[in-house]
């Protein structure tokens, strides 16, 4: 069997088969999304995510088909004029571009690909900005924004809403939700589930802003608005038919992770991160793009390679290991390796042993 160290879709979590079977046996794929059975599933999944991610009591969870859809819904629903974007790679850049395509004034502060933000306190953000958009974990560049920097941004700009993309770092990312209005992820990355479900976490201030725009008559889209998500959520329902089985399985996965404890999941991730760092330090053929350890993503490792990365990927594939190629600017010279909960310390060890042979 092949083992996927790709960064999304990625290796399915070893528990997935069991959870999927349970869901299948309970005929969850056929139930109505207006049934009590579905309401119980929605409520359970939200409760488990609340525990796992340390959401505040006021944050709620809405479901969409993807994370990219959330970019658009968010910009339409809470931004009348201006969004500000911290751009540290291709995904944050695309989020920034969405805002322009939707006719908003999109401002940005961009760092070169492969670098992090040295001092977020120095970034000038006008007080007229309605939403500050951050990508906590940039899957294209392997760069993260440390939790403290996100807190600092909110502390310095309390008049703006702030959101963060944790698509490839949830549930590892320890976001402080007291200082975060909205966050979102999809399940095909670090949750180790098949693609097709986005999770949007939203607080009261964001809903209030959306209601204000509605009152002003600002176009918020014909498809689901925050108002319609919230109206349905009051009854544990969704505006349209969601991926019910994916919501059910996500709830079971989050409950499983809660039984393990998020601390243990984080510790495991950090052990594997240390292994990756050690590998890099002892193999001159691969290089991180920055020496700033605080900026290195813990869940997505990006290395610039001395040899042709295509060769490396092919040789690894012949040994049943799938790694990801570079993305965007780094396409021709980089490889990316997922450090998600689906792989154990031993899996990582074996894969790196193999990679060592391939690049030597
Ligand atoms: C994969 C990814 C997305 C897009 O997620 P989809 O579920 O495919 O829409 C957005 N942001 C980041 C950082 C990602 O890694």
Structural features:
alpha/beta; four-stranded antiparallel sheet; 40% helix; 17% strand
Written account of the structure:
With 360 residues, the protein is an alpha/beta fold. Helix content is 40%, strand content 17%. The protein has eleven helices and 15 strands. Strands 2-10-9-8-5-3-4 form a seven-stranded mixed β-sheet, sandwiched between helices. Strand 14 (324-325) and strand 15 form a beta hairpin. Helix 1 crosses helix 8, helix 2 packs parallel to helix 8 and helix 9 runs parallel beside helix 11 (345-359). Bound molecules: pyridoxal-5'-phosphate.
Briefly characterize the structure.
By secondary structure, the chain is of the alpha/beta class. It has eleven helices and 15 strands. Helix 8 packs across helix 9.
Give the secondary structure arrangement, pairings included.
Elements: E1 3-4, H1 16-25, H2 36-53, E2 60-64, H3 67-78, E3 82-87, H4 90-101, E4 105-110, E5 131-135, E6 137-138, E7 143-144, H5 147-156, E8 161-165, E9 182-186, E10 198-202, H6 204-215, H7 226-233, H8 244-260, H9 262-282, E11 286-287, E12 300-305, H10 309-318, E13 321-322, E14 324-325, E15 334-338, H11 345-359
Parallel strand pairs: 1-13, 3-4, 3-5, 5-8, 8-9
Antiparallel strand pairs: 2-10, 6-7, 9-10, 11-12, 12-15, 14-15
Helix pairs in contact: 1-8, 2-8, 8-9, 9-11
The protein binds pyridoxal-5'-phosphate (PLP).
Residues 8, 66-68, 91, 135, 139, 165, 167-168, 186, 198 line the site of pyridoxal-5'-phosphate (PLP).
């Amino acid at each position: 069997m092949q083992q996927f160290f790709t960064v999304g879709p990625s290796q399915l979590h070893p528990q997935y088969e069991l959870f999927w079977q349970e869901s299948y046996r309970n005929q969850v794929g056929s139930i109505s999304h207006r049934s009590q059975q579905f309401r119980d599933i929605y409520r359970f999944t939200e409760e488990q995510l609340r525990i796992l991610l340390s959401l505040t009591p006021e944050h709620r969870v809405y479901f969409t088909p993807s994370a990219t859809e959330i970019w658009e819904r968010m910009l339409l629903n809470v931004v009348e004029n201006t969004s500000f974007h911290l751009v540290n790679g291709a995904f944050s850049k695309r989020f920034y571009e969405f805002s322009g395509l939707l006719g908003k004034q999109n401002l940005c502060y961009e760092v070169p690909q492969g670098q992090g933000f040295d001092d977020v306190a120095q970034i000038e953000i006008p007080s007229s900005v309605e939403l500050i958009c951050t990508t906590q974990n940039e899957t294209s560049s392997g760069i993260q924004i440390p939790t403290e920097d996100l807190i600092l941004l909110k502390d310095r700009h309390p008049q703006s809403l702030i959101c963060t993309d944790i698509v490839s770092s949830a549930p590892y990312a320890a976001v402080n939700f007291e200082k975060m209005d909205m966050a979102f992820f999809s399940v095909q990355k670090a949750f180790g589930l098949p693609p097709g479900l986005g999770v949007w976490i939203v607080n009261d201030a964001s809903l209030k802003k959306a209601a204000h725009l509605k009152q002003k008559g600002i176009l918020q889209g014909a498809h689901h608005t925050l108002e319609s998500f919230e109206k349905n959520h009051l009854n544990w329902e969704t505006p349209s038919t969601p991926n019910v089985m994916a919501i059910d399985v996500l709830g079971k996965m989050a409950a499983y992770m809660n039984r393990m404890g998020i601390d243990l999941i984080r510790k495991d991730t950090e052990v594997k991160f240390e292994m990756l760092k050690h590998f890099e330090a002892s193999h001159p053929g691969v290089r991180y793009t920055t020496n700033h350890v605080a900026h290195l993503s813990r869940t997505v490792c990006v290395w610039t390679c001395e040899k042709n990365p295509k060769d490396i990927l092919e040789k690894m594939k012949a040994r049943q290991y799938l790694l990801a190629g570079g993305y965007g600017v780094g396409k021709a010279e980089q490889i990316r390796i997922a450090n998600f909960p689906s792989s154990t310390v031993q899996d990582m060890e074996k894969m790196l042993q193999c990679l060592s042979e391939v690049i030597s």
